[in-house]
Amino acid sequence: MLRKALFWLVTVIVLLTVIGPLLWIYLTAFKSANDIFTTELKKLIVFAPTLDNFNRLFTDYPFWFNLGNTAIISVVSTAVVMIVSLLAAYSFARWNTGGGHLLFVTISTRMFPGVVAALPFFIMFRTLGLIDTHAGIILLYVYFNTSFATFLMYGFFRDVPVELEQAAMIDGYGRMEVFTKVVFPLIRPGLAVTSVFCFIWSWNEFFYAFLFTRHAARTVTVLISSFWGSIEVQYGPMAAGAAIAILPTLIAAWFMQRYIIRGLTFGAVKG
Amino acid sequence: MGRETKYKTTSETQPFTASRKPSIREVLTSERYFKWTLLIPLLLILLIFMLYPLFYCIYYSFHEWGMQGKPIFIGLKNYKEMLYDRAFLEALGRTLEVMVICIAVELLIGLGLAMLWNREFKGQNIVRGFSLLPLLVAPLVLSLLWNFLLEYDFGAVNQILTAIGLGKVYWWSPKFALYTICLITIWQWFPFSVFVLLAGLRSLPRDVFEAAKVDGAPGLYTFRRLTLPMLSPLIMIIVVLRAMWLIRLFDPLYGTTRGGVRTELLDWKVYRTAFVVFDVGYGSAMAIFSLFFTIAICAIMYRQLMKALGVLK
């Protein structure tokens, strides 16, 4: 009995520490300025909800425009990454092309500190006029996500038994047909999971977005970061913006529970 | 060769005749080259996005350049400067400190909670679902959130601490700010360790533990002699991946201290040198250092990691 009580006590405390701060974003988003800066303990949770922050966010700042940028950039870069990594991962998984070394080279791009790529690209993009363009930041996200996606897809391809493909080939299927008609339908769940991951990494990315976008291609994370100014901090609009911007990631996290650990470990641990 | 020779291939079903040169399409989809055809886009991306920046980063690191005019070759001076630059060495030290603290605490929490939750209980899916949430939320948003929560006067955490009689904490004081950043990072990433280790515990063979129980082995002994060794490959994965991510901690700084109050870390230092002070050469040199630092850490555990990932046998 005591053990059970202790078990639930710890579990509840852990859950509260996780959910509390996230919930805080949503509470703050609906608070008036007075309630945000209160020191009255009760008002932390009990307050008169208002939509002021959202109204200010929508009228005073290009929130929807920036969110749109994030969406476009995430979708396009994910699409490109998926095509590249789908082909590459299949090659690695079926033929062990490059004997594992090439695969390691691929994954090591993910280990590159972001700044190593940031500097040369900043200078190159400046000459090419790619700074603050969608194309520029999409290119960076393609670089950023390809190795990850290739690795994750590699794991999913390895789950498809080779015998299936051999059977199809004996039936007279060509290489392309085996891929499109036999393998592809089987790895569709893996494809979905990998795409969602790439989408989220692009959606959340800040460092490159902060360095390479200004106005035209500014993403929503950069907008939110701009509320934390040197003179004052706009907590209200910040919380309102964050509340909307993190919604897709929260939903994805909930529905992808089974795959999160697999994704974060590049497929090494099947959680 | 092995299995590849057993079944029919495109080139066998439509053999190239001696009189006709095979078309590009035929060559690309032939058994011999198909695997490389599939890799063309990836290799292009690797070439452009890996070799190009690497080359230029190394190039700049031997030059002095402020993004204007021509870079001046100065040899190893940038690298020498790093050895005497106190700010850099401190940033490096702090980065190591953050890495050690975060990984150690995350592993401890991870082990504890994984052992605790390694059973069937009511609502386990809900517990799992909620605790995984922070992992996918933008780190930048979370750092802004925690900056707000840990504000001295009206931050919710200090208010709650006062209410339960513990008094306020200067979370962002020069003495404490670095640990506060660790705290934020740990908060976001502890679920990672928990669920990696939980996946490990679930896959351990049950009979071994039952045998240990029958033999009357005490709990702690079983843990040290059975559980920990069997989990060690997973612990290795956690350490390597977390180390990789922690070396380039940037977002949590931007949303909170912006490198002030003695919290400047390696990546922040590089960013400031290259993009704020415009000392491209020195910034590049530090970036290259950071790269080798990462490679060194990964190389130590390269084989184990690749084995776990299933690349090497």
Relevant CATH superfamily of the largest domain in chain A: MetI-like
Beta-strand residue percentage of chain A:
under 5%
- How does the overall form of chain A come out from the CA principal axes? globular
Total strand segments of chain A: 0
Distance linking N and C termini of chain A? 30 Å
Order of helices and strands of chain A: HHHHHHHHHHHHHHH
Largest interface: A-B, 103 and 105 residues
- Provide the structure class of chain A: mainly alpha
How many separate structural domains of chain B? 2
Structure description:
The complex is a heterodimer of chains A (271) and B (313). Helices cover 75% and strands 0% of the residues of chain A. With 271 residues, chain A is mainly α. Chain A folds into two domains: 50 residues, no CATH class; 204 residues, MetI-like fold, CATH 1.10.3720.10. In chain A, helix 4 runs parallel beside helix 7. Chain A has 15 helices and no strands. The two termini of chain A are 30 Å apart. By secondary structure, chain B is mainly α. Chain B has two domains: 72 residues, no CATH class; 228 residues, MetI-like (MetI-like fold, Orthogonal Bundle), CATH 1.10.3720.10. Chain B contains 15 helices and two strands. In chain B, helix 5 packs parallel to helix 9. The two termini of chain B are 19 Å apart. Classes of the chains: A mainly alpha (271), B mainly alpha (313). The interface between A and B is large, with 103 and 105 residues.
